[in-house]
Amino acid sequence: MTNLLKNRELLLIVIIGLMVIGFSTRAQGFAAPGNLANIFNDTSILIILALGQMTVILTKSIDLSVAANLAFTGMAVALTNAPYPDPPLAALIVMAIGIGAFLGAINGFLVWALQIPPIVVTLGTLTIYRGMAFVLSGGGWVNAHQMTAQFLNIPRTQLLGLPVLSWIAIAIVLGAWFVLTRLPFGRAAYASGGNPTAAVYAGIDIGWTRFIAFVLSGALAGLCGYLWVSRYAVAYVDIAVGFELDTVAACVIGGISIAGGIGSVAGAVLGALFLGVIKNALPVIGISPFAQLAISGIVIVLAVVFNARAERKAGRIILRDRAAPEASA
Amino acid sequence: MTDQRPVAQAPATEAAPILEMRGISQIFPGVKALDGVSIKLYPGQVTALIGENGAGKSTLVKILTGIYRPNEGEILIDGEPIAFHGAQAAIDAGVTAIHQETVLFDELSVGENIFLGHAPRTRFGTIDWRQINLRAGELLRALESEIDPTIRLKDLSIAQRHLVAIARALSVDARIVIMDEPTAALSRKEIDDLFRIVNNLKRQGKAILFISHKFDEVYEIAENFVVFRDGRAVGNGRLKETAQDEIVRLMVGRDVKDVFPKVKVEIGAPVLAVESYSHPTEFRDISFELRRGEILGVYGLIGAGRSELCQALFGITRPSSGRLTLEGTPLDIRSSSDAIRAGIVYVPEERGRHGLALPMPIFQNMSLPSLSRTSRSGFLKAANELALARKYAERLDLRAAALSVPVGTLSGGNQQKVVIGKWLATQPKVIILDEPTKGIDIGSKAAVHGFISELAAEGLSIIMVSSELPEILGMSDRVMVMREGLAAGIFDRERLNAEVLVRAATGNA
Questions:
Q1: What's the CATH architecture for B257-343+428-509?
Q2: For residue B58, what is the nearest residue in chain A, using CA coordinates?
Q3: What does pTM read for this prediction?
């Protein structure tokens, strides 16, 4: 059990498994493969955003503008698709990623060049981006019938038993794992958060590293802008309001340290799935919609408390190790 | 207790001890940090507590300040047994401590820092700011300092902060003052000032426990000594009647020779030439040459611009003018990665803060500045990184369960080896060491000095910044002295002596 407790990813898998089993006793078929695939598909966008958020958090920053970025980009692609149905979907997706990356670059630039704390920068751009979505749409909606069939259908096309949306999430998970563990940028991200001063002394440009992290987070938010609008078949100013907090919660539950430098892709994915399972289960087991939000919140707080306890335990172990050489040297 | 023996006559008993510890043992899970230790502190006298890192000195301080409760033994004040239940009880009993790493608050004012936790109140129970600033000013003036109690701590120099820490310790009405390596961050002149303060405290009849690694200081300020080794008090007596060799022998349990094993190294061709390097605010017009196999000592008071010069050489800050030539090629260093690529590395003073990313594995810390060499076509290669780390771990005798465990799980000494290994792995030509032995004990010091000599023998050129005269004198081929941002002179080994260096550093003719 102690080994299990030390491996946070394994522990999360066990907890998610127990939750699924528990819920399935109340709701028949909750644990059926088809339903689990549904939950995964439902959580795909959160997973993608959480990976972007994680990259930013690793560098000791935070990106609160992801949901606003998503709303703006989603509105932009929907407004392009409605009057101009002809350009291929690929062009729209490239456009979404490009706009998202650009908005992320604005965050990154402000953090890097002007040395403004990331939380302040992204709190500001959160409002700006959502405001821009309002300006762009004039407060109007883009509804399903205005969008092309291709725009709406591609993400829900079944491929090898899973919708394309799920496959996109899986591809992003693998991509994030590769970038963070196999590319020098990933190492630079961990080092910049783990000890910024040491990173500078080791020849790492932490400003540039943070900038790239914000660009990546923005690009993924842009991609999710399209995916969200397509999935819910509607674009309006207030889509995904508050969703940035879900991405942060997924990271925290997954063991990504808010102080930077600690965390794994598996952790972020499992943190997102944890939230996804709860969000899907509460309506199914007949919890009042009024209570659902509060219950989700309570579960998140409990997970964070649990994390904090786990980290404190680690601290005690380190202290004991320090006491030992001090006394035995 | 058992093998404690007086080396010389026990302290003359003209006065009864204020504080006495009898048979104190402190047991941590699996470790006996203190084993039957006894100590007496006398009014108006300084007792030096000497011992290597890990001998149990810090544990003793924590017991005296009420942070640990000992498993065995008793503490007597004025002959009365007393139990310390927590830090406040120790303060009430008249014990105060000035800690090794001063625990102060950057964003608060000097006065607030001094009176935090026991601020004077007005009759309405609110904080009495007038009293705080008045009394803080009095305390600081008693320490012969003119620091304004209303300015914020972060605007003070390290030495001034230290004074604030001392003032804080004295702001409670203490009879027993513990000083835990108070001189570690101070230069010679500041140490002299500190010693004036200590002498002042002695005259007021306070009993002082003075913890230090530095023998010259101990002999200068203390009357009595106690030597700790492996959690036991292995000797005590009066310093006047005890030779330094005897204390060293007690400390390490063996004879230590060659504290400075400077190896005669053939000095080669010039490697690095620095010409009139200047910085807008920190230093001006610094020129020197460094040869292959040479150790250039850089000496000066704290704040003389030594570290700032090194940081500029390493690309952390940019010089405003001046030229740098490495092996005949002019260099323009704009960032630390430029410096590393050119073959100049900097081992910073605060290794914990500047040196390591503690949550990251050992091998990733070691390979961090060398990633361009261990990667293949832009991709990280863990196998190459591990091979690199293994090579230097072996060479440095690094003790770790595996190279993939986080650096934070290692002991301090092993962490230091990771830092050094990390820089050696970049295969530098010039290595800049900033206070390489600051805060480490005499046994480890010798190992570090031996290693520095080895590096020089292999043909590396070394710039060694140090505030410790014996180290500078023992290790350097040449010494550059800096004073207030200027080079006050460069001295050859033949002309080196303590007096010349101190005079150059302080500007006293």
A1: 3-Layer(aba) Sandwich (3.40)
A2: A326
A3: 0.73
